């Protein structure tokens, strides 16, 4: 199991995000990475004192064969999204729901990463991860 850090991509906190709701978006492109099943992909950095309210995975390009993932953090790898289909229709969206561990979101009191853990090898998947946050400063 490898660790892959993709947090340096397009994800950023908006300049005027303090004391507001904001969304972080990062495109995860596995076409050049060939990520293996159970690798841990660090997808989005979350600052301390942030309430992650909702998480979405939007499929841009499907894998082409059976592929799913979980989305969570270091405590619960599937806490935000228990399973997302990465071989569905382009444009399909999976969101965190009541059945997930963090049904009402999660408050992070220290800097943390949102983790994307594939259950299958990925070499064709492109997906956007979107995280709706509330600043608690």
List the helices and strands and how they pair.
Blueprint: E1 3-5, E2 21-29, E3 40-46, E4 50-61, E5 68-72, E6 81-85, E7 93-95, E8 106-108, E9 112-118, E10 126-135
Parallel strand pairs: 1-3
Antiparallel strand pairs: 2-10, 3-9, 4-7, 4-8, 4-10, 5-6, 5-9
Q: Strand order across the biggest sheet?
A: 1-3-9-5-6
* Strand count: 10
| Count of alpha/pi helices | 0
Helix-strand makeup class: mainly beta
Q: H/E element string?
A: EEEEEEEEEE
Please give the largest β-sheet: 5 strands, mixed
Give the CA-based shape.
globular
Q: What is the number of domains?
A: 1
What are the low-pLDDT stretches, counting only 5+ consecutive residues below 50? Answer: none
Alpha-carbon Rg, integer = 14 Å
Name the average pLDDT. 89
CATH architecture classification name: Sandwich
Beta-strand content bin = over 45%
Q: What would CATH call the class?
A: Mainly Beta
Distance between the termini: 36 Å
Fraction of residues in helices?
A: under 10%
CATH level 3 topology: Jelly Rolls
Summarize it.
By secondary structure, the protein is mainly beta. The chain contains no helices and ten strands. The N and C termini lie far apart (about 35 Å).
Model description:
The chain is an all-beta fold and 137 residues long. It is built from no helices and ten strands. A five-stranded mixed β-sheet has the order 1-3-9-5-6, with no helix packed on it. Strands 2, 4, 7, 8 and 10 form a five-stranded antiparallel β-sheet that branches. Helices cover 0% and strands 47% of the residues. The chain has a single domain, classed as Sandwich (Jelly Rolls), CATH 2.60.120. The chain starts with a strand and ends with a strand.
């Amino acid at each position: 199991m490898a660790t892959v850090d993709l947090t340096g991509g397009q994800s950023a906190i908006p300049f005027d995000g303090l004391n507001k709701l904001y969304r972080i978006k990062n495109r995860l492109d596995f076409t050049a990475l060939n990520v293996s099943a159970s690798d841990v992909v660090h997808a989005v950095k979350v600052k301390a004192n942030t309430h992650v309210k909702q998480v979405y995975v939007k499929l841009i390009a499907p894998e082409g064969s059976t592929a799913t993932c979980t989305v969570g953090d270091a405590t619960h790898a599937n806490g935000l999204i228990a399973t997302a289909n990465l071989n569905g229709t382009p444009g399909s969206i999976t969101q965190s729901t009541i059945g997930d561990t963090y049904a009402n979101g999660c408050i992070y009191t220290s800097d943390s990463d949102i983790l994307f853990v594939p259950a299958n090898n990925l070499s064709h998947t492109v997906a956007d991860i979107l995280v709706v946050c509330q600043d608690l400063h």
